[in-house]
Structures are given as structure tokens and as C-alpha cells.
């Protein structure tokens, strides 16, 4: 059990660090959005690249923030019954839910997105807009990366639930 808990702690540290780093992207996105608005309406200057950068940042926050949200128990769920469950019952729900739904979904997203991303990398896909960011392939790479980070955190949550169940049975 100590090795299992050490693995959970290592995954948690990685997710926590990446989540805190991603939080700074939210600040950058807000500042960039304000800049785009001021330039557009104050100086009549438009920038496709800046507008696309906002989309890229938003996509990065959404995809890579999923694991951090899972770690912080921030995903939406119907907890009318769950919140009244004992810690052991909650561990069963979380563990079974992760094994049956979350981990297979992450594996599916990873597998299904792999060729999509590889084809984008093969042609170095870029923005169809003149003056856009020539790195759509990087944006698409977030899909399997999201699946991998969410899988890792899902594994940590599953092992955490298993630890609760093992302690309860002692």
C-alpha cells in the first residue's frame, strides 16, 4: 500500500503543478482579450493571430485543466445521494465509475485522436485564415494529451478509492 500511495501522491503533485501553471493562462487569456478589444474598438486595429491565440489558450485551459478539475473534485455530477454516502460507499462509486467509465473513455479518446493528430502533424496544419497562427497541429495535439493526463489522474483517484476500501476492510 505505501507504493500505491506514493504513486497517487506523485500523480497528484504533477496534476497540481500543471493546474497551477494553467491558471496563469487564464490571466493571459483575459489580458489578451482586453488587448484585442482595445485595439479593435479603440484603434481600429484587428489581429487574426491574437484572436486565434485566445482560442488556443482557451482550448489549452479546457483540455489540460480537466485532470486538475478531477483532482479538485470539480466535475459536475448528481450528488443528491452521493453526498449522504459513507466514505466507503463514496469510494465504491468513485472506483467503479473510474474503472467502468472514466479510464475507458480516456483510452478511447487517446486512440481515436491519435491518427487525427498525426495527420495534422504530417502536413503541419496551419490556420486557414490569412495572418492566422500556423500551428493548428499543436492545438490538435491537446486531445491525446488531455486523455493521457485525465487517465493518469483517474488512475490516482481509482487507487485512492482502493486505499479507502482497503483501510475500511482492516
TrEMBL record:
Keyword terms of this UniProt record: Cell inner membrane, Cell membrane, Membrane, Transmembrane, Transmembrane helix, Transport
GO cellular component terms given for this protein: plasma membrane
Domain Tripartite ATP-independent periplasmic transporters DctQ component, first and last residues per copy: 29-162
Key word Lyase present: no
Localization terms from the record: Cell inner membrane
Spans traversing the lipid bilayer: 21-41, 53-70, 91-117, 137-156
UniProt main location, coarse: membrane
Membrane topology term: Multi-pass membrane protein
Record GO terms (molecular function): transmembrane transporter activity
InterPro entries attached to this UniProt entry: DctQ, TRAP_DctQ
Entries under PANTHER family matching the protein: 2,3-DIKETO-L-GULONATE TRAP TRANSPORTER SMALL PERMEASE PROTEIN YIAM, SLL1102 PROTEIN
Function: Part of the tripartite ATP-independent periplasmic (TRAP) transport system.
Description of how the protein assembles with itself and partners: The complex comprises the extracytoplasmic solute receptor protein and the two transmembrane proteins.
Family: Belongs to the TRAP transporter small permease family.
This protein's name: TRAP transporter small permease protein
Amino acid at each position: 500500500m505505501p507504493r500505491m500511495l506514493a504513486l497517487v501522491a506523485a500523480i497528484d503533485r504533477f496534476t497540481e503543478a500543471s493546474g497551477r501553471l494553467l491558471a496563469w493562462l487564464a490571466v493571459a487569456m483575459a489580458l489578451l482579450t482586453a488587448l484585442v478589444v482595445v485595439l479593435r474598438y479603440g484603434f481600429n486595429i484587428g489581429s487574426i493571430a491574437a484572436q486565434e491565440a485566445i482560442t488556443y489558450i482557451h482550448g489549452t485551459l479546457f483540455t489540460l485543466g480537466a485532470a486538475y478539475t478531477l483532482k479538485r473534485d470539480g466535475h459536475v455530477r448528481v450528488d443528491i445521494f452521493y453526498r449522504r454516502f459513507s466514505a466507503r460507499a463514496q469510494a465504491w462509486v468513485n472506483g467503479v465509475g473510474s474503472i467502468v467509465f472514466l479510464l475507458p473513455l480516456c483510452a478511447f479518446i487517446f486512440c481515436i485522436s491519435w491518427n487525427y493528430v498525426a495527420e495534422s502533424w504530417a502536413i503541419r496544419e496551419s490556420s486557414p485564415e490569412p495572418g492566422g497562427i500556423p500551428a493548428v497541429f499543436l492545438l490538435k495535439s491537446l486531445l491525446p494529451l488531455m486523455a493521457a493526463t485525465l487517465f493518469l489522474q483517474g488512475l490516482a483517484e481509482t487507487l485512492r478509492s482502493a486505499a479507502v476500501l482497503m483501510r475500511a476492510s482492516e
